[in-house]
Amino acid sequence: MIKTILFDLDGTLLNTIDDLADAANWVCAQHGWPTFPVETYKHFVGNGIPKLVERFSPENARTPEQLAATLAEFSARYDAHKEDKTAPYPGIPELLAALKAEGVQTAVFSNKADAFCGKIIEHYFGPDSFSLVRGSRPSVPTKPDPAGVYSLMADLGADPQTTLFVGDSDVDILTGHNAGLPALGVLWGFRGEAELTTVGADALAEKPEDILTYLHQH
């Protein structure tokens, strides 16, 4: 019986890609660098914002000093515009309400900077939508390293035997498996079925209510 679900954020709960791409392309334009289509950003994201910045920065703009400056520039721009086009995926608010009604504990674990995660979740889902919301913090390795998951489960009092990890990318499936958890892949996110199947997702959800179905079967 699954009693706790740990959700990825970007591409799983919220469609954030347009705001991320817009902020990144704005930074690129300021520097006269090439910009990228939204489809490309779906593959640039997933490993944390510093890695996103590195990926959209040209080869000759990747010194530690330049990357730090670009990261600050991107973070300020994204923070100011992170709610321009972002929205929950259809069916997600209803799924969260159903899980709450069934007494399932939910939390968010993202590679997005921790400072952004709480604010963006509260904006779209309200202040008490999840037991805990956690993003990338300087002292903790990013997903798929399981250290952050272990810490989160300890803080939640969650039993690994009854915890499920849900996300849209290979990073999420690997995170769940590295932490010894079953990992369910969602097909509405940034990456798609082939990637999720290749890394061994335990189940796939075409729509949010499929997660409830999985829950009732396990």
UniProtKB/TrEMBL annotation:
UniProt EC number: 3.1.3.18
CC annotations in GO: cytosol
Enzyme class name: hydrolase
InterPro entries tied to this protein: HAD-like_hydrolase_sf, HAD-like_sf, HAD-SF_hydro_IA, HAD_2, HAD_sf, PGP-like_dom2
An individual GO BP term: DNA repair
Superkingdom, taxonomy of origin: Bacteria
SUPFAM superfamilies for this protein: HAD-like
Hydrolase as UniProt keyword: yes
Record keywords, A-Z: Hydrolase
Molecular-function annotations in GO: phosphoglycolate phosphatase activity
UniProt name for this protein: Phosphoglycolate phosphatase
Lineage of the organism: Bacteria, Bacillati, Bacillota, Clostridia, Eubacteriales
